[in-house]
Amino acid sequence: MIQAPETAQRWRRTVRRVQVLEEILTQVIAAVQSGVPADRRLAELLRSRREIGARDRRFISDTLFSYFRWWGWLRAWGIADLMGAALLASLLDRPASGDEGRAMSQRCAFRLPLDALKDLHRAALGRKAELVAHALDLRRSPLPQELLPAWFWEEITVPESREVGAWQERLVNCLQTRPPVWLRAPAGRGAELAERLRAEGLPARCHPRLPNAVGVSKPFPAVDLRRRTGIGFEVQDLASQCAVEILDPQPGMRIWDASAGAGGKTLQIAERVGPEGWVLATDIRPTVLRNAVRRIAAQGLKNVTVARADVLAADLPGGAFDAVLLDAPCSGTGTWNRNPDARWRTPREAPRRFGLIQMRMLEHVAERIRPGGRLVYSVCTLTKVETLDAVEEFLSVRADFALEERIHPLVERRESPLWVFPWMGPCDGMFIACLLRRG
Ligand SMILES: C[S@@+](CC[C@H](N)C(=O)[O-])C[C@H]1O[C@@H](n2cnc3c(N)ncnc32)[C@H](O)[C@@H]1O
Predict the structure, then answer these.
(1) Peptide bond into 347 cis (omega under 30)
(2) What is the mean pLDDT of residues 37-55?
(3) N or C: which end of the chain has fewer CB within 10 A?
(4) Other CB atoms within 10 A of residue 371 CB
């Protein structure tokens, strides 16, 4: 069949796009296998290939993350062919555009019946597995649980009131979808921010219980939008905002953000304690602290001191604090919705290894809380050893601390400790314990 010149040209462009996808996918998968995060390697590769346009970058990034999100099933089905696996993973998440689907299927080592699978993205999880098994004549339909590594299920606890299988399936379902990007507006400006974002054509909504939290369910350039809306918002996941809600900083307080990273929570705390209060933000990594310094300056905050410090070292600045936030390093399983490759990079011993570090960090920061003060321990993970066990062990050696019941910011129920499960936002999963030092 003879094609019109513009059709032939479009086809050549699509074939080229799919070739670039294959090259990048191959390199990112190799990086992930050696423990490097997919987003970091992808960003490096895209930086070195300026010729790749915005649309193609989006196509590559979407396909890549679909691949890791569905990797557990691709492996269970025994699909080793790269393009076949990438196309199938894409179809599980979204409809393939005609040209791209055809170009990818031409590079598959087996025939993928695109027509039979065109509505795959709409099907519920269990049905997806059946449809693929049927269309490809595969022997088995894997379970939703197989989308996460087997060790994960051995490491988590299911709330006693829940039926295990249904609870696990709910969790997987949630981790298979990318949650919205959550923004934190300056106090009292959430509704205004949501409205301005909608005027820019973005699907934005305020959280019904945290009105300064605005969810946007479409990628967008944050820097550009800050300028266009004229509102100095921060990108900060809803679960992370909850940790500071539980800390409940009050005007005039002295607060230590002990592992502040790039300062996401520091900024929120500093806004709450106001000019009469003081925040000490420390971290062991100078590189992330440089970002914190930049963000604090951009918000014009004068009540924060940033210092490089190892929580485990004896000599720390600052005296006694009204409250300490320990947002501890962890295995990060609660962020597997945004970073699906981390499911396959995280070693099974990670929760235990972090559990030991967290325990030591808890003991060190506890020394710096005044009697009657509060220690908030948060981790973006769902494993038992890093959450319930860590708190229990801490309380067994520090009888002067006790768990304090707090109102869960997202479900408005009194709880102690608190779980932010990914379906509550949707957002990252997080564990937050509020520990009160007896006066
Ligand atoms: C989960 S991240 C914190 C994220 C940060 N609070 C935020 O909201 O963006 C954990 C942080 O703990 C820091 N960390 C790890 N070991 C530490 C130590 N011994 N002393 C101080 N910080 C440490 C890491 O560098 C990392 O930035």
Answers:
(1) no
(2) 93
(3) N
(4) 10
